[in-house]
Each structure stands twice: as C-alpha cells, then as structure tokens.
C-alpha cells in the first residue's frame, strides 16, 4: 500500500463484511466544532481481523478510526465501534455494564493501532454505538457511549469524558 497522502481522497479504516480490515475512500476532511478530523491512512501494520473479545460479551465491530488535532495541539485517536446488542430499547446493557469493555478496547486494540502511526497520540476516545452513525452527526435514535483515556507509558488511563 502507498504511504503517501492522496490529496483528492483520504482513507479511513472500516471493517468489511468478511471481517477483514479494509479502507474506504472519502472525499473530504471533516471539520467539527472547529476541530479538523483527519482519517488515518491505511498501513499494513494495522490489523484487526480477529474478533474482539470484551468482558460484557458484546461483539464490537470497528466502524472506523480517526486522528483529530485539537486547537491546543493535542492529538486524539477516535475509535468508533458498533455493537447492535447495546440498543437502548433492548435494555440489556447500560454504560456501567460496558465500562470494562472500554478499557479492553483501548488497552488491547487502540494502543496497538496508534503505535503503528508516526503521529504521537495524547488521548484515545472509544465510542460504542448500536448502529453506524456518521462522524460529526447526531442520531437521536442511536444508543452511543463514549469514554476517553490519556495515553501514558503505553497504558490507557481513564479520564472523565
């Protein structure tokens, strides 16, 4: 795979129907709340073909991940997961039920992926939703949970989001 930026289209990660990590072309940069969100370019070192195992038993699927440079210069890595079984109407999982999942997704998945990037990441934000929601858009029918972690000494340290 090419490692050079393509100015006409950037790439972001998503998981294909067969479970393999794939890329998709997107034609614009997202500016949300004054923050520029740059999708991460594909690299062979980043792989998540194996199913993710988390304490609650839900089966999270990676929707995509992005790098955001904040106005203060901090770099956030946003990992966006989908798990249909957390749907609010089903009443099976609260955010408290999923707390351990966020730690595992950060420590065992996100850290590995950000380590493969040339950009140093200050914080990791993990989101878990019952359906795919386009980044920067609200879906009042979607169940979405978020947790933020500071990256320190190759460890995810939970922070109030």
Shape, principal axes of CA atoms: globular
Helix share, percent: 10-25%
What does the average pLDDT come to? Answer: 75
- Our count of helices gives 1
Tell me the distance between the termini.
35 Å
Order of helices and strands: EEEEEEHEEE
Q: What share of residues are in beta strands? A: 35-45%
Query: In what order do the strands lie side by side in the largest sheet?
Result: 3-4-5-6-7-8-9
Rg, Cα atoms, Å: 15 Å
Largest sheet: 7 strands, mixed
Tally of DSSP β-strands: 9
Report low-confidence residues grouped into runs of 5 or more.
1-49
Keywords, separated by commas or semicolons:
seven-stranded mixed beta sheet; mainly beta; globular; 11% helix; two-stranded antiparallel sheet; 161 residues; single chain; 36% strand; 9 strands
Give an overview in words.
The protein has 161 residues and is mainly beta. The protein has one domain. 11% of the residues lie in helices and 36% in strands. It is built from one helix and nine strands; from the N terminus they run E-E-E-E-E-E-H-E-E-E. It has one helix at 99-115; strands at 10-15, 21-26, 30-32, 35-39, 61-69, 75-82, 123-129, 144-152, 155-159. Strand 8 and strand 9 form a beta hairpin. The protein is globular, with a radius of gyration of 15 Å.
């Amino acid at each position: 795979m090419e490692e050079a930026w393509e100015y006409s289209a950037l790439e972001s990660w998503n998981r294909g129907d067969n479970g393999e990590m794939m890329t998709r072309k997107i034609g614009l940069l997202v500016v949300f709340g004054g923050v520029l969100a740059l999708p991460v370019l594909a690299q062979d070192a980043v792989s998540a073909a194996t199913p993710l195992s988390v304490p609650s038993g839900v089966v999270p699927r990676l929707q995509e991940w992005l790098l955001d440079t904040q106005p203060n210069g901090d770099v956030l890595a946003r990992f966006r997961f989908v798990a249909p079984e957390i749907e609010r109407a089903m009443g099976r999982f609260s955010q408290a039920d999923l707390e351990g999942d966020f730690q595992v997704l950060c420590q065992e998945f996100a850290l590995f992926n950000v380590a493969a990037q040339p950009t140093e990441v200050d914080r990791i934000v993990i989101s878990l939703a019952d359906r795919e929601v386009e980044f920067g858009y609200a879906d009042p029918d979607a169940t979405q949970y978020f947790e933020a972690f500071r990256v320190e000494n190759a460890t995810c340290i939970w922070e109030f989001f």
